[in-house]
Specification:
Number of helices: 7
CATH class of the domain at 84-247: Alpha Beta
Strand order of the largest sheet: 1-2-5-3-4
Radius of gyration: 37 Å
Order of helices and strands: HHHHEEHEHEHE
Strand content: 5-15%
CATH superfamily of the domain at 84-247: OmpA-like domain
Number of strands: 5
CATH architecture of the domain at 84-247: 2-Layer Sandwich
CATH topology of the domain at 84-247: 60s Ribosomal Protein L30, Chain: A
C-alpha cells in the first residue's frame, strides 16, 4: 500500500484548528537592538559639536559670576565674589595714602572700581596731574603691580574720565569730550610708565554723558554740589579674563 507523505490530516467534522500560524511553525527571533549603535554615534557627534562651539565662544565672566551669585542666594548657599580679596587689598592702599575722604570703592563680579574726585588729580580745565595726584597714583600703581607679580597675572585696567555738564568756553580743549579723554589717557600713561602692558590698559572719556546726579536744580540753576560729584576719575581694576567692552 502506497503511503502519501506530508499529507494533511483531515480534521473531523465540526472541529476547528485553533493554532495560530506562528505557533504552527515558529520563526527565527529578530534582534531589534541594532538601533542603539546609530543612536550612540549620533550622540557622540552632537557632543563633539557642542564642545567645539563652547571652545570658540567667549565667556562673559561678569555675567557668569552674577548668575552664580543669584543661584547661591536662591538655594541658601554662600557666595564669595572673586574680587572680594582684591577689594580689601585696594582699600588697604587707599587707607595708606590717606585719601578715604576723596575716593570711594565699589566691587562687583568684574572687579573693583575706585572713584576719585577729579580735583584729586587735576586742576580746573587741565589734564596735567597735580603733585598730590602723582603721589596717589604712584602708591596705587605700585600696589597693583606688586599684587600682579605675586599672583603671576596681569589685571585689566580701565580708566574713565567724567566731566560736569557745563560747556567749556576757554582753554585748549574745545569740549568736555576732549578734556575727559585727555584726563583718562594721562592716568593710563602713568600705568605705562610703571611697566604695565599696553594691551591691558584702556582709557575712556565719557564727558558729561554719565552724571552721578542731575546737574541742575528744579529751578533750572546749576547744582554746584552735583557738578562736583559728576567731575570724577574712575580707575577700574578688572579680572584679566574680563573683556573691557563687556563691562559697559
Amino acid at each position: 500500500m502506497a503511503l502519501k507523505l506530508f499529507s494533511k490530516k483531515k480534521q473531523p467534522d465540526g472541529f476547528e484548528d485553533f493554532r495560530k500560524p506562528d505557533e504552527a511553525q515558529p520563526e527565527a527571533s529578530h534582534d531589534e537592538s541594532n538601533w542603539l549603535i546609530s543612536y550612540a554615534d549620533m550622540m557622540t557627534l552632537l557632543c563633539g559639536f557642542f564642545i567645539m562651539l563652547f571652545s570658540m565662544a567667549k565667556l562673559d565672566e561678569a555675567q557668569y559670576e552674577s548668575v552664580k551669585e543669584a543661584v547661591a542666594k536662591h538655594f541658601g548657599g554662600d557666595y564669595k565674589s572673586p574680587s572680594a580679596d582684591l577689594a580689601k587689598f585696594v582699600t588697604q592702599i587707599l587707607n595708606e595714602t590717606g585719601i578715604e575722604g576723596v575716593a570711594s570703592l565699589k566691587s562687583d563680579a568684574a572687579g573693583v572700581s575706585i572713584i576719585f574726585k577729579s580735583t584729586v588729580f587735576f586742576d580746573t580745565l587741565s589734564s596735567e596731574l597735580t603733585f598730590e595726584g602723582r603721589r596717589i597714583l604712584e602708591k596705587l600703581i605700585d600696589g597693583i603691580s606688586g599684587r600682579q607679580k605675586a599672583e603671576l597675572r596681569d589685571y585689566r585696567i580701565v580708566v574713565e574720565g567724567h566731566t560736569d555738564s557745563r560747556p567749556i568756553l576757554s582753554g585748549i580743549y574745545p569740549s568736555n569730550w576732549e578734556l575727559s579723554g585727555a584726563r583718562a589717557s594721562r592716568v593710563v600713561r602713568s600705568f605705562l610708565e610703571k611697566g604695565f602692558a599696553p594691551k591691558m590698559l584702556t582709557p575712556i572719556g565719557f564727558a558729561d554723558t554719565r552724571p552721578e546726579n542731575p546737574s541742575r536744580t528744579p529751578a533750572g540753576e546749576w547744582d554746584e554740589a552735583a557738578l562736583t560729584k559728576n567731575r570724577r576719575v574712575i580707575i577700574r581694576v578688572l579680572d584679566p579674563r574680563i573683556q573691557e567692552i563687556s563691562a559697559y
